[in-house]
């Protein structure tokens, strides 16, 4: 199982009411949640770990996970509220306003962390769940306990959401040092003052730099390769990076490479099919509104 560890929330997406007035539609989302959903839809064994509320919106999240074949039996439930993210779109690019105080997801503690069994082959971390305590510290602790499991991280840094920058930087740097795979944007690298070469020197086996319509550049100690983006009519980019992450991990699973040693021992050309699956799946997501990853049959 690929266990996705991090936030789930309700995206309040901008819509126009039948009266012509602006409105918002509640849709299940969150970067890590979206990745878990996409992995399940792509036919790979998907799991989700994060605090889920028992409120109305928490029920929506749980039903969405079930519908996309995601195992969330490790996710603790509580009566705390669900995180809300109000989304605005500018030229198809999303900006977010988060309402996250004392929510079920944010208040995940180290005591809530499960003991991981052999069925958990890989761990995925990322998004805003790595920012706010206590959940951020809980995920960092789980990452440190990963053992020989494959670890992938997508920092997906949102500077406007960070309140304690030194603490966040220290946490993220420690997690990146443990990661086997890092997917990162040029904005993330600029904020971290790092490069793919520096990440590899720090111990990462595979760095994936996403470049939107220009595709993905993959780096390892053995060199680099470019994988083109799939052509698509872009409706919006919500969930595109999350779907890419899912496609990569699902592709590694399909190829029999979903293991720390396998990724570290593979040539970049061996990893190309998994990277290409990520790009292909992401192209479907950007072609329709919201984070709506494709099913395996759509590819």
From TrEMBL:
GO terms for molecular function: ATP binding; kinase activity. Coiled coil: none annotated. Keywords: ATP-binding, Kinase, Nucleotide-binding, Transferase. SUPFAM superfamilies: Ribokinase-like (SSF53613). The keyword Transcription does not apply. PROSITE patterns: PFKB_KINASES_2. InterPro entries: Carboh/pur_kinase_PfkB_CS (IPR002173), PfkB_Carbo_kinase (IPR050306), PfkB_dom (IPR011611), Ribokinase-like (IPR029056). Residues 2-297 form the Carbohydrate kinase PfkB domain. CDD domains: bac_FRK. The keyword Transferase applies. Gene3D superfamilies: 3.40.1190.20. Belongs to the carbohydrate kinase PfkB family. This is Putative Fructokinase. It comes from Salipiger bermudensis (strain DSM 26914 / JCM 13377 / KCTC 12554 / HTCC2601). The lineage of its organism: Bacteria, Pseudomonadati, Pseudomonadota, Alphaproteobacteria, Rhodobacterales.
